[in-house]
Amino acid sequence: MKLFVNLKPAAVLLLAGIVIISAAGCGSDSKAPSTVDSDAPKTAVDPAKNSGAPQPGQTDPSAKVGSSTPSTPPTSGTVDPAKPSTPPSTTTQKPADSGSKGQAKAIEVVANPTDKAVLVNKAYKLPEGYVPQDLVDPNVPFIFKEKSEKRKLRKEAAAALEKLFKAASDDKLPLSGVSAYRSHETQKTIYANYVKKDGEEAANKYSAKPGQSEHETGLAIDVSGTTGKCAASDCFAATKEAKWLDEHAAEYGFIIRYPKGKESITGYQYEPWHLRYVGTEISKDIAKRGVTLEEYLGQATPVNK
Ligand SMILES: [Zn+2]
Fold first, then answer.
1. How much is the pTM?
2. Residues whose CB falls within 8 Å of the CB of residue 23, separated by 6 or more in sequence, listed in order
3. Distance, CA 3 to ligand 1 centroid (Å)?
4. How far is the CA of 68 from the centre of ligand 1 (A)?
5. Catalytic residue positions?
6. Whole domain around residue 207: which residue ranges?
7. pLDDT tens profile 5-32
């Protein structure tokens, strides 16, 4: 997710023009069935790959939220908006404001916050008060100098990040961290500021509500080139660093969490800079199949209804 992004008017226009899908997909606008990219459902629906996929070493989030419900294909445009994606089961906390349409949607609390495959998005949130217990400072450069929680990652993710950065550097594309861990309190502040600035509907397209940010897991980090140019901005997509990450992140256990064309599934616009650690077993599988974490985990129900 973007941290203090300065979207220039031109960039906004460009974004609005080019990625109309993104705008429809990231928000809570469910009226865009025909504009939602058609290849996302196709890839996502593949039952041979998805439904039978083993979930190595992880707690199935669906177990907590309705294990009797088979995963719904991510045909965001065709899903009956009146039908809840998950039964209003025991973990339902509160109805979520889904934005302009005002549809109530239950947000589930994940049962496995410490699992490196934990799914945190607009439908699944971290338990109240969750703080990762093994946060460390990875030994990598950041685009800022000060000591900050933003440098922290969980231990395993930090070690993997060091390897990733070393490999990028060896390929003459040194990277810098932009923002990693974010506490619940920080996310609260960030989100509130965005809402104040752009309004809730717009803010929801690029920022997570408290408890629903991957940065709170200690497993996600935004990265950029060492100059910090295009840090957490759309222009990062055109950089060599972005291309390198796209090709190599999975070798080190990271995925590009919000890929292009999957906005209707992830609930977020394309973020080539946002890396999520899941471990190499899962990251390589996800990269090979070209799916999102939602699809991989069989939680392909659109999160942006
Ligand atoms: Zn991010």
1. 0.67
2. 15, 16, 29, 205, 269
3. 7
4. 32
5. 271
6. 9-296
7. 444 444 433 333 333 333 322 322 222 2
